[in-house]
Amino acid sequence: MSEFNAVKGTKDFYGQEAFALREIENIFRASASLFGYEEMETPILENYALFARGAGEGSDVVRKEMYDFNDKGGRRLALRPEFTAGILRAIVTNKLYANPDLPLRYFYSGPAFRYERPQLGRYREFHQFGIEAVGVNDPLLDVETLMVALTAFSLLKFPSLKVKINSLGDEKTRTSYRDALRKYYADKLDVVCEDCKERFRLNPLRMLDCKVESDHLLSLDAPKLSDYLSEESKARFEKTKAYLDEFGIAYEVDTSLVRGLDYYTEFIYEIHAFSPSGKDYGALGGGGHYDGLLKEVGGPDYSGVGFAVGEERILSLLDEFGLRKNEPIVDVILLPIGEEALPYAQKLANEVRLLGYAVETPLKSMKINAAFKKAERKGASLAILFGEEEIKEGKLQIKDLAKAEQKEIMRENLAQTLDEFFQKEEEE
Ligand code: AMP
Fold it and tell me: Model-level pTM?
């Protein structure tokens, strides 16, 4: 293996794929903006302790997947494995909680890092978009966050999504459920995996999503969280479902849904994509409500709710469904005929750009057929041809590449011709 290979689990994005990834992000930004969310950008680097507290010491994300290290000053730092803890830290650092207009509503996007086994749709550096709404404890706000995600998916024209929901209950629920789990697993500790022994100690809830087959089978007979929901949590979940019904959001209650991060309480959700044949592609994103997290990182005792989606996963599904559109690299291609037309082409290229249309500077004169093939590869919809004669007479040949129609215009009518053509193209 060469030391110049890309790091395992990372991926380069360039050209159309980079554009498509940015487009996904832009659509999520647009959706969040429609709901009144503002952007927040926090550092990739945070103190290790923030994530240990936030995502939970018992979670796989913290125990096994964090890129953590000591910097040259001996500080224990981590590359963010998720955004929520950092966003809440920023709310505390900048005292944003003192805002009279609660809830705070923020969206974010950028890379996150997890030392996971790379496989299809799973990277060690990946991109997330997400939102957090903090400072008001209301099932209506919980549902709002799900609506932000669903609005973005509908703007992306995403087919066959399924929303899975569950309630993790309040602190009272979780305390009695943890006790029940410890009781269930107490005489099975010699058969569970090493990780689960640790999970038993730190947070037995995490034993339920163990990927070891025998542990998974054991978890099927474990007590169900839904049987331990407090009266308050039950009522809250019912109210949440009533809002979902009212807004026409289809969902499936999945009592096995727990999510991988420890801070969630009450309402949680995941958005799954399905193939036309009904195959579950897994979660494109998920989120939910959290009660103690802001206090945990030094702020007031406000609750919050949010979700994150994986941009790479959305991109690969857009490809699978044939929904990815290629973006034209240029609008116009210039075809100088003969080397003498080249200097003229440079001036013309600048003029076209000043009119707001993308065009490459032609570096050589090309054979007509090769030039048209290149125009197609670059996504141009219009070609401008000119040789010695056109230059002398102050004319240009304009070719509509899709319709293969060509007409001659006077050079001084270029702006008007381009504007008319592209306006018509947009309307069609
Ligand atoms: P989570 O923060 O675990 O709730 O993840 C939210 C979303 O991020 C998931 O549903 C995935 O779409 C995406 N995601 C999480 N981990 C990875 C990964 N290792 N590679 C690519 N996408 C990921």
Answer: 0.92
